[in-house]
Each structure stands twice: as C-alpha cells, then as structure tokens.
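Give me structure tokens for this 203-residue protein.
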Amino acid sequence: MSIIKIYNESLKVSKDIAKEGVDPVRSSRRTDIMNLHMVEYLKTIFKGPKFSFKCEEKVTCSRGKKFKIDVVIYRDGKQFVLVLLKAIQSSYNKNRFNYANTTMGETSRIYDLSHTPQNLHSVWIDWVPNTVPNYNNQKELLSMETTNPCDLTLPQKRWNMFLKSCGSSIYYSKITFDCNFKSITTSKVKGEKALRNYLEALV
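Here you go.
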C-alpha cells in the first residue's frame, strides 16, 4: 500500500457515492476506506505486537471534552501517534486558508493542555492534486484550477521547538501530484518520502 493509493481508493469510492446521488463529503464511507488503507500503510512502518491501531478514536481536547482523530497508533497501550487525513478532490483555493486554520486549530486542541502531552506525535496528511476541478454550488464545472497550498513550515518549526522538551512532535505533510480524475490515475507524486522518513524516525 503506497500513500498515493490511499487517495486513489478514496476517489473511486467518492465516484461511486456520487452516482447514488449522495454528496461524498457527507458520507462516512470515504472516511472509512481512507482510514482502513491508512492503517495498512502504517503497519508497514509500525510493526510488532507493541503497536496497535484504532480509527475514529477520541482524544482529549484543550477546548474541553474530546474530538475524533482519523487514526491513532498506540504503543504499549498508550496513544503514540495521531494521524489526521484530508483528501482534496475539488474547489481547493477558495478554502485554502480555512484548511490551514483548521490544521492550526487541531494542533492547539491536541497540545494546548495544562500538562502538555508527553511522547505524543501528530501528523497531518493532506493529499492535494496540482490541479482540481472547481465547481459552483450547483456542482457545475467552472474550471480546472491550480492549487496553492499554504506554507505551514514556520508554525511546524515553532510547535516542534515547544514540544521537544516533552518528547513530542508534529509534522504537516502535503502529498502533491498530478491526477487524472476520469481514469483515477496519479503521477509526479511529491512528499511521500519526507512523510515516511518522519514516521520511520518515530519507531
């Protein structure tokens, strides 16, 4: 299982859901497929009986109560790595700041606790095609737009400086690629090696 195949599988499911007249964004089926394949991918890195995996797992939120994380890796029964997933399929640029703000907010929800979590790592994996279809509210295709993701290098660096003393860390991963949405094929994938290097360094 490669990181890009997870995106391809989610796109296939989205197409099937859309044929049923349902908005894929509002369907849990796409989320379930992504989580399932993500666990398969993670198992190629986090091997052995000390690691276990749970999907849609709730974690403590600094704002109060708890919120769900797509995939949680446990090590020796304790939460070890939180994995948050987002697969972009259309109309990206008008929401690019919202996506970045969501990531920043989730980071704060995880780590801005009275006692900063010890030995807890978090990785955000965003699949962002280099071009995506741009639709209006009636789902009519307006254009193909070139995506322009926000650069989160500085906040990532700042958070990791803060978390280092706790043995924790974060990583904001952007997987970029060319995508043929009709044939569901991808090429020119970037970002996977850096992501895998980060994950392997945690083992």
